[in-house]
Design goal:
alpha/beta, three-stranded antiparallel sheet, binds glutamic acid, 10 helices, Rossmann fold
Length: about 300
C-alpha cells in the first residue's frame, strides 16, 4: 500500500502555500487509496511548539485533509536518530566540524533561496591534535562521495546532483546536539514506512542527500513529487508573513471548498475556479494535469 505523509514544521500557523502542497499530497494519495501519516517536524525546540501543532491539525481537518495515523513527533525520536548516527559513524563517514556557519539553519529544512552553500571541507581531515586545539563544540558532518545521485521526480522529471560538487559534506547534527533536518527526515520516512513524498519544489535540492542517506542506512527511498510553490502577485514566495493570506482571515471570506477550488484551479486540476471538496478533487486527481512551474496566485 502507498504510504504518504504530512510533515509540517509547527513553527507557525499554516499558510496557503502549506495548504497547497498538503492538498496535492492528500489527493494524490487518496486517489490511490493510500494511507496518510501525520508527523510533526519539531526538531528545533526553540522554533517550534505544541500550540502550533494543534493549530495545524485543526486547519488540515477544516479542509477535509485527514490522516490515518499520527506518528511520534521528531522531538521524541532522538534515540532513533542516535542509532542512525552511530551507524554512519561506524562507517567512518562522520567528522566533527568547528566552522561557525555549520550551526546556522542546520536543523531546519533548507528552502529554495535560503543561503545554502557548498561546504569547502575545511574540517574534513583535521588531526586529533588540531581537533583538541579547537575550543568549541563541533557540529557533525557526513562525508559525501564524488557520486551522482538522480531523483526521478514524478512531476519535475530527473534532477541530478554530483554530491561532492553540488552539495558538499553536510551537517547531520548541530553543535548544540539538535539533529539536522536531513538526517531526521530520512530516518523518519524510513521508520514510518513512507513510500510517497509530495512536498514543495524548494526541497527538491535536498532529495539527493536524502537518497544517499537512505542508501547508507540500507533503507529504500520513497517516490518523490515536488510540487510548485505559490507566489504572491509580485513574485515573492507566499510565506507565514503574508498576513492577508492567513487561513483564518481567508476563512472569514471564503468557504474551505472555495479555497480548495482556487488552489485546484491554480494547480491545473480543474478548468474553472469553482468550489470543490478535497474528496471530490481526489476523485479526479491526475498528476498529468498538475503544473510544474511555480504559480502566481490570484484569489
Ligand atoms: N517540515 C518540513 C517543512 O516544513 C518539510 C519536510 C519535508 O517535507 O520533507 O518544510
Amino acid at each position: 500500500m502507498t504510504v504518504g505523509r504530512f510533515a509540517p514544521s509547527p513553527s507557525g500557523k499554516m499558510h496557503l502555500g502549506n495548504l497547497f502542497s498538503f492538498l496535492l499530497a492528500w489527493c494524490a494519495l487518496r486517489a490511490e487509496k493510500g494511507e496518510m501519516v501525520l508527523r510533526m517536524e519539531d526538531l528545533d525546540p526553540q522554533r517550534t511548539g505544541p500550540e502550533y501543532a494543534a493549530l495545524i491539525r485543526r486547519d488540515l481537518l477544516r479542509f477535509g485533509l485527514n490522516w490515518d495515523r499520527e506518528v511520534p513527533a521528531q522531538s521524541s525520536r532522538t534515540a532513533a536518530y542516535d542509532e542512525a548516527f552511530a551507524k554512519l559513524e561506524a562507517l567512518g563517514l562522520i567528522y566533527p566540524c568547528y566552522c561557525s556557519r555549520s550551526e546556522v539553519h542546520a536543523a531546519s529544512a533548507p528552502h529554495l533561496g535560503q543561503s545554502e552553500f557548498v561546504y569547502a571541507g575545511t574540517c574534513r581531515n583535521l588531526s586529533p591534535e588540531q581537533r583538541a586545539a579547537k575550543n568549541r563544540l563541533p557540529a557533525w558532518r557526513l562525508r559525501v562521495p564524488n557520486e551522482k545521485w538522480t531523483v526521478h521526480d514524478g512531476l519535475q522529471g530527473d534532477y541530478t546532483e554530483l554530491l561532492s560538487r553540488d552539495c558538499g559534506d553536510f551537517v547531520l547534527r548541530r553543535a548544540d546536539g539538535v539533529y539536522a533536518y536531513q538526517l531526521a527526515v530520512t530516518v523518519d520516512d524510513a521508520d514510518n514506512g513512507v513510500t510517497q513524498v509530495v512536498r514543495g519544489r524548494d526541497l527538491l535540492a535536498s532529495t539527493p542527500r536524502q537518497m544517499y542517506l537512505f542508501s547508507l542506512l540500507g533503507r529504500p527511498a520513497p517516490e518523490y513529487y515536488h510540487v510548485p510553490l505559490l507566489l504572491a502577485p509580485d513574485g515573492r514566495r507566499l510565506s507565514k508573513r503574508d498576513g492577508d493570506l492567513d487561513l483564518d482571515s481567508l476563512l472569514d471570506r471564503y468557504s474551505p471548498e472555495q479555497i480548495i477550488g482556487t488552489l485546484a484551479h491554480a494547480a491545473g486540476l480543474i478548468d474553472r475556479k469553482e468550489a470543490v471538496s478535497a474528496a471530490e478533487l481526489a476523485a479526479v486527481f491526475d498528476w498529468k494535469k498538475v503544473k510544474k512551474e511555480d504559480i502566481y496566485l490570484t484569489l
